[in-house]
Amino acid sequence: MSYNKILTKIAAEIAPLRNQGKQADYIPALAKVDPDHFGICITTTSGKSYGWGDIDTPFSIQSVSKVFSLSMALAIMGEELWKRVDKEPSGSAFNSLIQLELDHGIPRNPFINAGAIVVADILLSHLPHPHSDYLKFVRRMADDPTINYNFEVATSERSVGYINAAIANMLKYYGNLENEIEDVLHFYFLMCSVEMTCRQLSHAFLAYAHAKSQFEFGDIRLTSSQVKRINAIMQTCGFYNDAGEYSYLVGLPGKSGVGGGIGAVYPRRYAVATWSPRLNSKGNSVMGMKALELLTTYTNESIF
User: Fold this and answer.
1) Which of the residues 6, 79, 199, 221 has an alpha carbon 20 to 30 A from that of 27?
2) Do 261 and 288 contact (CB within 8 A), yes or no?
3) Is the pLDDT of residue 240 over 90?
4) pTM
5) Contacts 24+ apart (CB under 8 A), 214-223
6) What is the rounded CA–CA span in Å between residue 114 and residue 169?
């Protein structure tokens, strides 16, 4: 497979989309990001890497980080995790309060904000040093010790995080938060602020591409069955209320973030990361979604 030629072809084809959508300007720090970046990087299970564009420019991965936090929580809690957060597609906006109330404080899945806040609470309760332990885990996944939090982004998100605060308060009301609300929110925003490049993110997602292998990074160990289930949740819930459209067009387990990043996997073959800050109305990268659609079209490589 000539991935370099395919990526060059994809970049040319999506060029007319470069002015569609806008970055997540409701978060002050993200509003300052140049919206015209684009990068895509593939890392194969054999260790080869192929990229086009801004693949070495760091960006805030935002909700892509929820895949890593879910991995840690599932390794710690096992099936007990699903008593506090469900694994069903939401069909609603990622920050919906209405759905959370209808579900009596049990978030629909770990990738919407409410679910990720519960996962953050679980990690706070079980990790000896949550902030450093989470970052250490991500660094090991990417095999890069330079990855760090962007504290400006985390502070910026908290300054306007009124809906997330409301979600945390509702979770507390329903007895689904153990720790102090402000501590949980601080950790949640820190995790979202992690900065990675497309190259780093594609490397980190390789663990999910090795679908028949056990998953072990430091003290975090997942069985191959658990890795398969994380991929299933990415496929059905990784793009909020755009998940059906993404599955229809792309057909790879993946997770998006409002920083414009997407991480995805073709099991047993490769992991891919894209980044373009301009988002559609559902909060997903316009160029990133199209790039992945074209990738599976031109390669005939998808899970369907």
Assistant:
1) 199
2) yes
3) no
4) 0.96
5) 215/71, 217/137, 217/140, 217/141, 218/136, 218/137, 218/140, 220/71, 220/72, 220/75, 220/137, 221/75, 222/71, 222/74, 222/75
6) 10
Catalytic residue IDs: 63, 66, 188, 240, 258
State whether residue 92 is helix, strand or coil.
Answer: coil
Q: Are the CB atoms for 192 and 111 separated by under 8 Å?
A: no
Which token pair is 243? 């998940």
- Is the pLDDT at 219 greater than 90? The verdict is no
- In the chain, at which residue ranges do the beta strands (DSSP E only) sit? 39-44, 49-53, 59-60, 195-196, 215-217, 220-222, 254-256, 261-266, 270-275
What amino acid occupies position 162? Y
Q: What is the dihedral of CA 64, 266, 239, 11, to 10 degrees?
A: 90
Q: What is the pLDDT of residues 288-301, one digit of tens each?
A: 999 999 999 999 99
Q: How many residues does the chain have?
A: 304
Q: Which two tokens stand for residue 207?
A: 């663990």
β-strand pairing of 254-256 with 220-222: unpaired
